[in-house]
Amino acid sequence: MRFCSLGSGSGGNATLVEASQGITSTQLLVDCGFSLRELTRRLQRAGSAPEALTAVFITHEHGDHIGCALRLCQQYRVPLWTSRGTWRAVGNPDFEPSLLHFARDGELIELGDLQLQPLAVPHDANEPLHLRCNDGAKHLGLLTDLGCPSSSVLAALQGLDAMLLECNHDEDLLKNSSYPANLKRRILGSHGHLSNAQSATLLQQCLHTGLQTVLAAHLSERNNRPELAAAALASVLGGTADEIPVADQKLGSDWFTID
Q: Is 67 left (phi over 0), alpha (psi -120 to 50) or beta?
């Protein structure tokens, strides 16, 4: 199994997960918060294309995550998975019924060479779900918008081999920013976004010798810096900050193979 970020931040989020068993291959796109043209360009950069996707999973209805999902799935006949709450939040749009599938917290999804475990998270959206993915041997956790690390989320993240982990903001930068007070309260609240320090605490609670890769993601352009996020995670993982990969809004990340 391997994964890469196609781009991560408030300007758009998308993560590609790929697993193969012999002659079969499964490509899952988790979120697609870009225009179809831009997403296609980013998929091509990663060596893929819309028509190569096995399925799309949308974590929640915010524009930087759902983006072109409906258009992409209908145009290329790609199955779409999301929660009923997310579907209601986007207005129950006219959509090909055979392509639409609903996910629920804790209910496993068999998708080709992948098994998906949706995780309910405390974010300010309508039934947001993030994912734990496995290929039968290795386990990957994908967390981009996590208000706070609830006990159920922490339990579901134990034993991971790799993780894409939200490091949205540095608290001091956010508190001293020009953001209005109500937006600061939202971001800092229990249903907002994880700070670097909160992400490091979550990581410490999930740390074990088998955790190979942690990719920092969903950094705020104005209220964080890659070196701050990397330093926070390095304080848990050991090593230096320049050894911690950070997903970029424009360039995403390299592929990471989970051996």
A: left
